[in-house]
Design goal:
5 strands, DsbA family protein, Thioredoxin-like_fold, globular, Thioredoxin-like_sf, single chain, Thioredoxin_domain, 5-stranded mixed beta sheet
Length: about 220
């Protein structure tokens, strides 16, 4: 999914002035972080509270950071294909430390992220897998209310209780912090499309598994 960086960052910069729906009923919508005022661009948000979602050995010789959006079809294709091979061949064998960072092109991607993070790091990648598997269904479910409810269904399928799920989707501070965190990293790494990757600090575009394998093996010196 290619987007001009300036448009992306202009869209998310208003998050600190977000409009928030706070009614407790399950049928209400979670945050829309893309409505707000210009003063939000000047807001300072502490992003140190955001947990990095990581797989693999902490001391692995190769680090791969993926920037992806839950609403990006190319990201879904990567996670249903090359990622699974990458995990089996390199992450699970201790050769790659894999870091997943969400990109928010729209509010639906943010809502999906809040569901994926709701049960903590232990379930994050499993819930992400469910979100990507069902992307074609939930992302096209209809309007915001229908999409939010489909994401709730995924959360419940993953074992998240209703009260906890509603608390996660209703956490305005978390929504604001996640968008600020995304913007901070994506600006630094010059991310303007998804999925994009950093392999040991070098930016790499999406490609077939054999391309990733060759790049990783080059870093491993094999």
């Amino acid at each position: 999914m290619n987007r001009l960086g300036t448009l992306v960052f202009a869209g998310v910069a208003v998050v600190a002035g977000a409009y928030w729906l706070t009614l407790p009923s399950q049928g209400n919508l979670p945050a829309n972080p893309f409505i707000g005022g210009a003063e939000a661009q000047q807001a300072e948000i502490d992003t140190s509270t955001i947990v990095e979602m990581v797989q693999g050995a902490e001391d692995a010789p190769v680090e791969i950071i993926e920037y992806a959006s839950y609403t990006c079809p190319h990201c879904a294709a990567f996670h249903q294909g090359p990622y699974k091979q990458l995990k089996a061949d390199f992450i699970d064998t201790g050769k790659v430390r894999f870091v997943y960072r969400e990109v928010y092109f729209d509010r639906y991607g943010l809502w999906a992220s809040m569901v994926a993070r709701c049960a903590g790091p232990e379930k994050f990648f499993g819930i992400s897998d469910l979100i990507y598997k069902g992307q074609a269904e939930w992302s096209r479910a209809g309007g915001p209310a229908e999409i939010a409810e489909e994401l709730r269904k995924i959360g419940r399928l993953a074992g998240i209780e209703n009260d906890k799920l509603e608390a996660c989707l209703g956490d305005a501070t978390m929504a604001q912090t996640l968008v600020a965190w995304y913007q901070e990293h994506a600006t630094r790494d010059e991310i303007n499309s998804t999925p994009s990757f950093m392999i040991n600090g070098k930016k790499v575009e999406n490609q077939a598994y054999e391309g990733f394998k060759a790049l990783i093996e080059a870093e491993l010196g094999s």
